[in-house]
């Protein structure tokens, strides 16, 4: 009786152990730091070797900084968190939502010249489903149909 | 109607509070008048929430833009169907929608036990009333769709074009139905813990509602994948995004429960475990709603950050605390009535099934929360992406697939060698044959080979069961094959419905394995230019650009590209992909441009064309060959159909004579069918 139970537990430990091992190693191998430009620069100052690590940067696209490199599917732009600015080069198809001033997440590595070489580019957008709270009313005032002073 | 709706919402709040207080008081004092009053309170809450919902629908359909919700989520020029679905398209409306489903489900569940489960029912009603109170309060105070603007805009902001899709109109309601249905088993679990009545009656109620929840979650998740695939234009259907994971978690634990409950029914084991699974499923549904709404985890498709986050977090921790308290104080009532007798038995197979499902759920939860956990523990945010989830879950998933074949065929208690030979010789041989064939045909991806070998094995076990069952009916009743199939399934709904669900799983895993052979190509074409690509099956495709065009319709401005497609020299017609810019009634652009993907589906492979943009009359395109994608939707549908068969009530006359000994019936039939 107990032996079946013990055998089951051994099997269970094996299964969960393998799963745990896979989880631990794949986090080590594929986990990525998710940093703001400021945090990235602090990390790089503290340890220049950090340059080789893959990271994700979450920041906002500097308006007017997006450039298409002619002939290729390459984008050059700058992102900022308000304090530090990081130049980024991205090769590939940019999402529909990628425009001036949107929040983006770029994934890649810091190049030797200080330009971030991005392999993926995700653009986030507050209006994906609806407005962020607080900005709602102002947006209406920009719509031409809006008449100032009309009350409900 | 709008005013009535708004007022009803507040009355509903009071009704839910009343139902909670009277039910709990009635339960603890044993007073029938209070219990009855509590039950009526639930019905009244339901009626009020229905009125509140009708009010919002009225506001949406009559374009009452003085309501902020109507103005932010719809515009006058939108198709009616999406105005209708805007009810659940935004934060506040979707919370009201939650309350609507929850109140209806609660009313049905409480009504269905009005004459039975006397010890449990008031506690279940009270728990449900508390959950209702929480949701209605959230709607009233934190996300009220009846909030008014200080002015009336001439038109609303419209709906995000990506949500203007038939899939998006029906995907969220299904998911919500699935999420919300977990509240019923949870309430009955709490009720059973309080009243110490964890008996067969409890199992039957909880099982029925868990199945319902599983059914809707399955449909909801499948529709969500389909929507992401056809609408978002990244040629995939699952990205391990937190929001997707949130929908998968309760599905995983719910699936685990639907299996382990069979062990409790047949052998009286796993009583604690089952209670924990029921409760966990509900808590994960709440947790899922919480991370979707709070913006606590970076997700590409989260709702806007909002104040409901803290409410949900408090509710989540409160529910967890209450549950832990009751489980801990009732451990004695939950002692198992039997023990595991052998490793080679159905019990063991089911236990491993549970272990793997919960293991997958844990790893998904871990990966989803890792950015937060790592920030707490190590001070820097570390994210994990699809590679993490795939590395961990592909092996676990394959183990699960193998168990899908083993579980239903292996004997209870202790399988004999002859049982194993009889049940597994043919399926194992067939599975290996499938694997060998694919190897010979040149398939080299190890995981895909294992997946198809196992798929062959599981499919063969299911086929064998049907073959035996049909054969038995034919020899006993002399029925024709189609009649035998229908009767076989109809008379053993749980068993054969379950096999159909498993068949869906086989189809689904086969489709997943096809991802190993997916190919993407980024190309640029001017009008008249062409390109040639080779797909994973070795066909040569030629694409000739017809140039780009622009047009305007109803509420959008469209840029389109047409490609003339030939495969191995045979014309396949023209495939088009569009970029759309939606606008309001005054032709002002709304939202960012969105992509309309050109998809050509076939059984073997999808051709998937995305127009990324047009620059100097050059179309930038991503052309993907996605093998077997259509089978993901088919697999999901088969699972849902199987679930429906399992749920479909057996005719009463068959059950009536035996009272509630029905749980034993399948075992008897099993003996009859597998001689």
Structural Rg of chain A: 23 Å
Structural class of chain A: alpha+beta
Estimate what percentage of residues of chain B fall within beta strands. Answer: 5-15%
* Overall average residue pLDDT of chain B: 86
Strand content of chain A: 25-35%
Helical fraction of chain A: 25-40%
Shape of chain A: elongated
Largest sheet of chain A: 5 strands, mixed, barrel
Biggest sheet statistics of chain B = 5 strands, antiparallel
Separation, N- and C-terminal Cα atoms of chain A: 75 Å
List keywords for this structure.
heterodimer; A: 152 residues; alpha+beta; 5-stranded mixed β-barrel; elongated; disordered C terminus; B: 675 residues; 4-stranded antiparallel β-sheet; 21 helices; 62% helix
Can you describe what's shown?
The complex is a heterodimer of chains A (152) and B (675). By secondary structure, chain A is an alpha+beta fold. Chain A contains 3 helices and 7 strands; from the N terminus they run αβαββββββα. Chain A has helices spanning 2-30, 37-46, 136-142; strands at residues 32-35, 55-61, 67-69, 74-80, 85-91, 103-110, 116-124. In chain A, strands 2-4-5-7-6 form a 5-stranded mixed β-barrel. The termini of chain A are far apart. Chain B has helices at residues 2-29, 32-61, 68-73, 80-85, 91-112, 121-142, 166-181, 183-195, 200-231, 242-267, 271-294, 308-329, 346-378, 386-406, 417-440, 446-477, 481-491, 493-514, 630-647, 652-655, 665-673, and strands at residues 382-383, 519-526, 530-534, 540-553, 556-567, 570-583, 589-596, 598-601, 605-615, 618-627. Chain B has 675 residues and is an alpha+beta fold. In chain B, 53% of the residues are buried. In chain B, the strands form 2 sheets. Chain B has a 5-stranded antiparallel sheet, with no helix packed on it. Chain B is built from 21 helices and 10 strands. In chain B, 62% of the residues lie in helices and 13% in strands. The radius of gyration of chain B is 27 Å and the shape is globular. Chains A and B meet through α1, β1 and α3 of A and α3, α13, β1, α14 and β7 of B.
């Amino acid at each position: 009786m107990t032996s079946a139970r013990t055998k089951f537990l051994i099997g269970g430990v094996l299964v969960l152990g393998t799963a745990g091992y896979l989880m631990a190693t794949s986090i080590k191998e594929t986990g990525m730091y998710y940093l703001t430009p400021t945090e990235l620069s602090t990390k790089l100052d503290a340890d220049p070797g950090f340059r080789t690590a893959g990271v994700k940067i979450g920041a906002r696209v500097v308006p007017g900084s997006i450039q298409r490199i002619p002939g290729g599917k390459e984008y050059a732009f700058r992102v900022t968190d308000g304090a530090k600015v990081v130049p980024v080069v991205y090769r590939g198809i940019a999402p529909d939502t990628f425009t001036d001033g949107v929040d983006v997440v770029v994934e890649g590595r810091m190049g030797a010249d200080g330009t971030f070489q991005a392999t993926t580019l995700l653009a986030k957008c507050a209006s994906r489903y609806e407005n962020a709270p607080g900005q709602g009313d102002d947006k209406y005032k920009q719509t031409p149909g809006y008449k100032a002073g009309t009350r409900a | 109607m709008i005013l009535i709706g708004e007022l009803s919402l507040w009355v509903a709040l009071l009704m839910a509070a009343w139902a909670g207080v009277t039910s709990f008081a009635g339960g603890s004092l044993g007073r029938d008048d209070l219990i009855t009053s509590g039950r009526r309170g639930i019905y009244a809450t339901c009626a009020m929430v229905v009125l509140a919902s009708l009010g919002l629908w009225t506001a949406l359909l009559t374009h009452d833009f003085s309501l902020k919700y109507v103005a932010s989520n719809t515009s006058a020029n939108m198709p009616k169907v999406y105005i209708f679905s805007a009810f659940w398209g935004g934060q506040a409306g979707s919370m009201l929608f939650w309350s609507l489903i929850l109140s209806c489900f609660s009313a049905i569940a409480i009504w269905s036990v009005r004459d039975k489960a006397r010890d449990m029912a008031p506690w279940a009603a009270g728990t449900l009333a508390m959950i209702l109170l929480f949701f209605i309060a959230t709607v009233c105070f934190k996300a009220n769709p009846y909030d008014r603007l200080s002015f009336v805009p001439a038109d609303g902001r419209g709906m995000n074009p990506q949500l203007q899709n038939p899939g998006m109109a029906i995907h969220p309601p299904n998911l919500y139905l699935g999420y919300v249905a977990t509240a019923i088993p949870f309430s009955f679990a709490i009720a059973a813990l309080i009243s110490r009545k964890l008996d067969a009656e409890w199992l039957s109620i909880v099982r029925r509602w868990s199945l319902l929840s599983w059914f809707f979650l399955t449909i909801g998740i499948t529709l969500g994948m389909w929507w992401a695939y056809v609408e978002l234009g990244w040629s995939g259907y699952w990205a391990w995004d937190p929001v997707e994971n949130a929908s998968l978690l309760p599905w995983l634990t719910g699936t685990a429960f639907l299996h382990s409950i069979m062990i409790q029914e047949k052998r009286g084991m796993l009583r604690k475990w089952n209670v924990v699974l029921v409760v966990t499923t509900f808590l994960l549904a709440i947790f899922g709603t919480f991370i979707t709404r709070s913006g606590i985890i970076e997700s590409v498709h989260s709702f806007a950050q909002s104040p409901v986050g803290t409410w949900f977090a408090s509710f989540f921790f409160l529910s967890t605390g209450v549950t832990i308290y009751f489980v801990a104080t009732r451990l004695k009532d939950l002692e198992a009535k039997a023990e595991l007798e052998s490793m080679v038995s159905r019990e063991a197979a089911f236990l491993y099934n549970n272990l793997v499902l919960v293991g997958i759920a844990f790893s998904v939860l871990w990966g989803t929360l890792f950015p937060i956990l790592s920030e707490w523990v190590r001070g820097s945010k570390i994210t994990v992406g699809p590679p993490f989830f795939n590395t961990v879950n592909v092996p676990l998933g394959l183990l699960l697939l193998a168990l899908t074949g083993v579980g239903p065929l292996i004997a209870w208690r202790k399988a004999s060698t002859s049982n194993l030979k009889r049940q597994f010789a043919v399926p194992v041989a067939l599975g290996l044959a499938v694997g060998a064939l694919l190897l010979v045909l040149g398939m080299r991806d190890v995981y895909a080979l294992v997946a198809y070998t196992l798929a062959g094995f599981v499919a063969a076990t299911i086929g064998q069961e049907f073959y035996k069952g049909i054969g038995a009916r034919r020899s006993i009743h002399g029925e024709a094959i189609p009649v035998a199939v229908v009767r076989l399934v109809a008379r053993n709904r749980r068993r054969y419905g379950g096999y159909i669900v498993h068949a869906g799983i086989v189809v689904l895993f086969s489709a997943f394995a096809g991802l190993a052979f997916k190919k993407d190509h980024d190309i640029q074409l001017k009008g008249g230019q062409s390109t040639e690509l080779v797909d994973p099956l070795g066909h040569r495709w030629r694409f000739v650009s017809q140039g780009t065009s622009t047009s305007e319709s109803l509420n959008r401005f469209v840029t389109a590209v047409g490609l003339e497609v030939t495969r191995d020299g045979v014309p396949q017609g023209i495939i088009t992909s569009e970029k759309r810019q939606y606008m309001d009634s005054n032709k002002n652009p709304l939202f960012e441009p969105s992509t309309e993907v050109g998809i050509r589906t076939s059984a073997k492979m999808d051709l998937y064309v995305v127009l990324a943009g047009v620059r100097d009359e050059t179309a930038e395109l991503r052309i993907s060959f996605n093998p077997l994608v259509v089978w993901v939707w088919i697999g999901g549908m088969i699972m849902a159909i199987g679930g429906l068969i399992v749920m479909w009530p057996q005719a009463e006359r068959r059950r009536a004579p035996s009272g509630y000994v029905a749980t034993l019936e399948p075992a008897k039939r099993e003996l009859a069918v597998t001689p």
